[in-house]
Amino acid sequence: MGIFSFKGGVKPASHKAESTALPIGEAPLAARYVVPLHQSIGGTPRPCVAVGDAVLRGQRIGEADGWISAAVHAPTSGTVVAIEDAPMPHPSGLPALAVVIEADGCDAWIERQPADPAALGPDGVRAYLQQSGVVGLGGAVFPSHAKLSAGKAGALDELVINGAECEPYITCDDLLMRERAEGIVAGTALFRDLLKPKRVLIGIEDNKPEAIAAMQAAVAKAGEDFAVVAVPTRYPTGGAKELIRVLTGKEVPAAQRSTDQGVQCFNVATAYTAWRAVAFGEPVTSRLVTVTGNVGSARNWDVRIGTPIAEVMALAAPNPDTDGVVMGGPMMGVMLPDTAAPVVKATNCLIAHSPALFPPKPAEMPCIRCGECARACPHQLQPFELYWWSRAKNFGKAQEYALFDCIECGCCNFVCPSHIPLVSYFRFAKSEIWAREKEKAAAEAAKTRFEFKQLRDEREKAEKAERLAKAAARQAEKTAPAATASERPAPAAPGADVTTSATVAAPSPAADGNGDAEAAKKAAIAAALERARAQRASAVPRNTDGLSPARQAEIAAIDARRESATPATAPTPVASAAPAPVPADATTDEEAAKKAAIAAAMARARAQRAAAKPRNTDNLTPAQQAAVAAIDQRRESTGLASPAGATGTAAAPLSTDPHAAPASSPPAADADRTSTP
Amino acid sequence: MLSAIAVMALGALVLGAALGYASIRFKVEGDPLVDKIDACLPQTQCGQCGFAGCHPYAEAIAKGEADINQCPPGGEEGIRRLADLLGREFKPLSADHGVEKPKAVALIDEQTCIGCTLCIQACPVDAIVGAAKQMHTVVESLCTGCELCLPPCPVECISMEPIAEDIATWKWKYPVTAIRPAAATPLHPSPAQAA
Ligand code: SF4
Ligand code: SF4
Ligand code: SF4
Ligand code: SF4
Q1: Which of A173, A341, A408, A505 is most buried (most C-beta within 10 Å)?
Q2: Residue A384, C-beta contacts closer than 8 angstroms, at least 6 positions apart
Q3: Which of B27, B39, B59 is nearest to B49 (CA)?
Q4: Cα torsion through A468, A469, A472, A474, rounded to 10
């Protein structure tokens, strides 16, 4: 077995002995479990229980959402008391959706049915593992079933089982291998059957002789041909790409998967839980957690998923000067803002933090470009360049220097003589870039939708114009002879709506243009005026009577605007509009008659509008009515009528209604709406 | 002599035909500069820049008719991007066009909505769903936060809700160096402190 080596890496003090003295302990049942739904990479599982439901240990409470997602299960029997946002073990301290279970103390399992991989077939086993919530327990929590298919390169050469556990303080895999090696070997055999690699390599750092011995014994006992390989202790050998490099000599290029090189890699704990799921029908409801650091008794505990971290910490009796909890190891872990957060599938280690144990870093100094970080980087990056560009927020350059190949191992931080928190800069740059990519995608989508809407508006406008032109042509054809015939009954009772008066008015200009029809028209006008006069004698006009001069002036002004603004739908009404029931002060002046007719139409429109309105605004409180009135007023003065107002600069071209041209007055716009089909 | 003229004329014809063909065949649709500018704009389509959307603003910038600091949704960062692209000096956002606000989406109070459809017509990206006299609602994932639906609503039931941060959208913050007591301060200030 040739052992290869990777470039870079560091050798921090391991601090592993503290937590390996005692065997794995079973953490006592908690009273309340908070089980986050999103515990793996990929889609957030949908809750499939309701508040008040009784659940058993191992019962599915979250349904996998999509292929890259894994189910979530109840850690004990009890009652679902809430499905709500709860604090998460995340550096942000932000809450996320979780199922809260009040334990009943019985800790009763669901009916556990072992699965038969042969009967299920490879796809069946993958789906089964997804349903059992098996995810990578090394810390990345990638759903394991999605990694259990051969890659593009076809059959795998090597299956690598990762027991390196290179990060200081963490010993949960070590203890798992010491005490439950047979389960790991059985799980490895399960993966081997699915992936059919040419050989299986189990890599364990040589600082864990007990684990190596236990694994070798278990492999021999199972009669498998797995190679248990002791690899030199160097951080970060436990990184998937590093371990693959050390065991197989293969280098996985940037932006490639290890399967493209014919290698797949799983953590030992993942293999163990997969075996528990298949051989015992037990979904993932607990995991090993190393509780160590500034504590009285460091130890590995088998902890149920969802146990509050504070309760787990209490098991180890933290020293009084503990000032926080780190989840993960000292190199890659994060400080938890809230220890009420629960243990999740990614929680491999909890370290009680104290200033004595982790002295605060001296102040950041300028980079002296010593190149130590580049020598330490296991991915052969140039952290000082990445740092330079990330610090300057020049993310394009940072990406050119392969920012996304950084695994945030922290080796560069560890060696930097200037104490620069390099990884913090890289994390910042990465999340900024992700946010930008998301924004960019959203902007693209918005642009497409906006362009489509504009296109549609254009098309609608064109269609409408065409329709109107056609209608006008038809009207002209139909009514021109009638107008010349001049004998038309007086139209329009006072209540007639704007539509009719407008269409009646329409033919007149056409008739007006006819030289022939001159005499006939004059006669018609005379007749109409005569009729109007007679009518006035009988019926007192109602609409525009008794208006103040100011009001009349206003109406006239509106008329004028409307005429100029909407020639298409409301062609200048002339003589034939005279038969309208409002005779204009009995003058024979054509102009005056016309004006009066329009004024009447306007008034009618207004009356109509007033009559039609109460639909929506019925049953309002006086306060609401006042508010509506105020809004109406504002709207008349700015919003609808003149899109050229303050916010409306853009609204003008966006507006869908061709008649909402800036000049049209509010009543005109309203009348328009009622009249256009 | 004649043959020389003929050869030259032939050459001219052939080259002319080739150029003519190329100008048709390799015609660039649109203005590449406008598209590049447009790509720097946030596509909120709010019109605060004084143009009917981001593309018209991009055109105006390209023609030199508008300054680069008129887009509030793009904010300082957007101005920097434009300044970089166009090789101009950065300048702060022009106050006439508004202020940079945290990203928000429109929310319709569905109890109050009277179903007038005015907001649908105002929405530049068709993010509002509804029908006449029916309750309307905003599709959150499509809303750009342009606020154009606010003024037309007759009952003022649309409000802007800032987008809350969650774990998926949370970002690592720019590292800050703790300021230490004078005794511990290094002789030369670190770049972070100097900054
Ligand atoms: S180790 Fe630190 S000081 Fe040296 S080059 Fe890297 S970042 Fe700069
Ligand atoms: S944190 Fe990133 S840049 Fe630094 S040593 Fe590790 S991989 Fe290299
Ligand atoms: S202000 Fe900005 S987002 Fe709004 S339309 Fe103008 S360019 Fe687009
Ligand atoms: S503008 Fe207001 S009232 Fe009208 S449909 Fe939209 S939300 Fe409802």
Answers
A1: A173
A2: A367, A369, A371, A373, A374
A3: B59
A4: -110
- Rounded to whole angstroms, the Cα distance separating A267 from A279 reads 18
3-state helix, strand, coil in chain A (%, to 5): 45, 15, 40
How far apart (Å, rounded) are the C-alpha atoms in residues A618 and A275?
68
Q: Which residue has the tokens 């065409």?
A: A466
Whether A343 and A390 map to the same domain: the answer is no
Q: Where are the alpha helices (DSSP H) in A89-151?
A: 117-131
- Count of domains in chain A? 3
The closest residue, in CA terms, to atom 1 on ligand 2 is A408
The parent domain of residue A600 ranges over 480-509+522-675
The answer to whether residue A466 is domain-embedded is no
Q: Which two tokens stand for residue A513?
A: 């243009």
Contacts of B193 in chain A (CB under 8 A): 363
A109 within domain boundaries: yes
Q: Which residues pair with A270 in a beta bridge?
A: none
Measuring from atom 6 of ligand 2, which residue has the nearest CA? A409
Which amino acid type is present at position A177? Answer: M
pLDDT confidence bin for A336, thresholds 50/70/90: very high
Provide φ and ψ at A517, rounded to 5°: -80, 0
A69, A186: one domain: yes
B126 neighbourhood in chain A, CB within 8 Å: 449, 452-453
Indicate which residue's Cα is closest to atom 2 of ligand 2: A406
Reported confidence tier of residue A583, pLDDT bands at 50, 70, 90: very low
DSSP at A363: P
Pocket of ligand 3 (CB under 6 A): B 41-42, 44-49, 51, 53-54, 57, 71-74
Helix boundaries (H) for A543-665:
549-565, 590-612, 614-617, 622-634, 651-654
Mean pLDDT of A338-359: 93
Tell me if the pTM is above 0.80: no
Predicted complex ipTM: 0.77
Decide whether any atom of ligand 2 lies within 6 Å of the A409 Cβ.
yes
Secondary element (H or E) of residue A300: strand A299-304
Strand order in the sheet with A95-103: A32-36, A95-103, A78-87, A54-55
- Each residue's pLDDT tens digit, A526-566: 666 666 556 555 544 444 445 566 666 665 666 666 655 54
Contact (CB, 8 A) for A195 and A150: yes
For residue A666, give the H/E element and its range.
Answer: helix A666-675
Q: Which ligand is nearest to the CA of A410?
A: 2
pLDDT averaged over every residue in chain A = 79
Contact check, Cβ <8 Å, A650/B116:
no
Q: What is the best residue among A361, A369, A423 to mutate for testing ligand 1's pocket, by most ligand atoms within 8 Å of CB?
A: A369
Domains of chain B (ranges; CATH) run 32-97 (1.10.15.40), 102-164 (3.30.70.20)
Ligand 2 nearest-atom number relative to CA A380: 8
Name the nearest CA neighbour of A422 among A390, A381, A450, A460: A390
Query: Nearest C-alpha to atom 3 of ligand 2 is from which residue?
Result: A383
- On whether both A188 and A226 belong to a single domain, the answer is yes
Place of tokens 């200048």: A572
SS3 A222: helix
**Ligand 2 pocket check for A416: Cβ under 6 Å:** no
